Amino acid sequence: MKEIILAKYGEIALKGDNRSSFEDILVKNIKRRLKRLGSFSCDRRQSTVYIEPLDEDIDISEAVDVVAKVFGISAVQRCAVFPKDLGVVEHNLDYLNDALNDAKSFKVEAKRSDKSFPLKSPDIQQKLGDAVSEKFPHLKVDVHEPEVTVRLEIRDNGAYLSAKRIMGQGGLPVGSSGKALLMLSGGIDSPVAGYMMAKRGLIVDCIHYISPPYTSDRARLKVEKLCEELTEYCGDIRFFCVPFTEIQEKLRDSCPEEFFTVIMRRMMVKIANKICEREDYGAIITGESLAQVASQTLAAIGCTNDAARFPVFRPVIGMDKTEITETARKIGTFETSIMPYEDCCTVFTPRHPRTKPRLADIIAAESRADFDRMVEEAVEKTTVKRFKFGERTVFLD
Ligand code: ATP
Ligand code: MG
């Protein structure tokens, strides 16, 4: 018996003329992610990618988990493939043992995309349902809330039987929307922001600002670990690490304390602008959430935004902390985010930050030092690293 994974398209199925370019990227992404598990063939037909393991010893459940994290897929099904003959399928119901032996109720859902198949879907459901009931007499039929849904799809090239379907991430394939630069701090919000924009098809690379000796090496490692965790969804990630100490010290020495955070954020954005220009990123992404802290009031965001020369995407802007945290847990970044190492934002934090800064005051304060030159220097001293999908090289206790 042959087992195969079916990955169903999400939004791509709605695309018109340019659909095949999305499909090409999706298949490429799936192949790239599966590479380390062995060899697979990936073919696309009928809004589905057919993923067939070609090596004997491939762990299919691991492959299912990997594929379920690829953006662009709405559901992933592990199936057995049979000839299009109900008799043969009914003869092989052992395949469902794992899923049904300990279950209490089930229903059958049949789909017939090969319209030349003689039985219609309701008839297939009836017949297969009877056969399942006979083989697993402990099961009740429950068409409303079954514990297990047994699916049989009669497709062009075979009958696909499955009792295991997991939801995919949805979204669009990474790389189908261009690329953007995520300002990644060590907090909870920005990894979630990166995840959300990669979901809309962006290649997400990260920029992080460090202020040694005020921030420790561990703080940087923590952010690198977050990068590694994000590769599960985003694929490979480039990580730009910017030395930010001099700018922060200059800020402390020459600007009013109540403006520290906003000016600091503007400097971060100015550096990001230059990296975007040099490396051809089309947008900046941040984890800002409206009014979460003083630097994220409407007025403060307005001042920060003024420094940007690229669109700034803030996907968590309207989310509550609890919602952001929920997503962080779901994608597996939360535990790393709450590790206690200090970020550069906590260096020289003003006691009373201005919640309604005026742009003219901010710009006047900035003119007291030659920040433009310092921004240039920081860009020059920026280092780059690449984190590859699935690699785990950063360890922190
Ligand atoms: P997070 O939980 O992501 O740290 P936060 O609520 O702590 O967010 P701030 O510290 O005010 O918010 O930062 C707002 C945004 O600015 C972050 O979401 C991130 O995009 C960016 N940012 C802050 N500090 C850094 C940093 N050291 N390096 C890169 N980006 C940063
Ligand atoms: Mg932060």
Summarize the topology.
Elements: E1 2-9, H1 19-34, E2 40-45, E3 48-53, H2 60-68, E4 73-82, H3 86-91, H4 97-100, E5 105-112, H5 121-135, E6 140-141, E7 148-155, E8 158-170, E9 179-183, H6 189-199, E10 203-210, H7 217-234, E11 237-243, H8 245-254, H9 260-279, E12 284-285, H10 298-306, E13 312-313, H11 321-331, H12 334-337, H13 359-366, H14 371-380, E14 383-387
Parallel strand pairs: 5-6, 5-7, 9-10, 9-12, 10-11, 12-13
Antiparallel strand pairs: 1-3, 1-4, 2-3, 4-8, 7-8, 11-14
Helix pairs in contact: 6-7, 6-11, 8-9, 9-10, 9-14
The structure holds adenosine-5'-triphosphate (ATP) and magnesium ion.
Adenosine-5'-triphosphate binds next to helix 6 and strand 10.
Main features:
397 residues, alpha/beta, six-stranded mixed beta sheet, binds adenosine-5'-triphosphate, binds magnesium ion
Summarize the structure.
It is built from 14 helices and 14 strands. It is α/β, with parallel strands linked by helices.
Structure characterization notes:
43% of the residues are buried. The protein is elongated. Helices cover 38% and strands 23% of the residues. The longest helix has 20 residues, at 260-279. The chain is an alpha/beta fold. Strands 2-3-1-4-8-7-5-6 form an eight-stranded mixed sheet. Strands 13-12-9-10-11-14 form a six-stranded mixed sheet, with helices on both faces. The chain has 14 helices and 14 strands. The mean pLDDT is 94. β2 and β3 form a beta hairpin. Residues 183-185, 187-190, 207-209, 268, 286-288, 292-293, 295-296, 343-345 line the site of adenosine-5'-triphosphate.
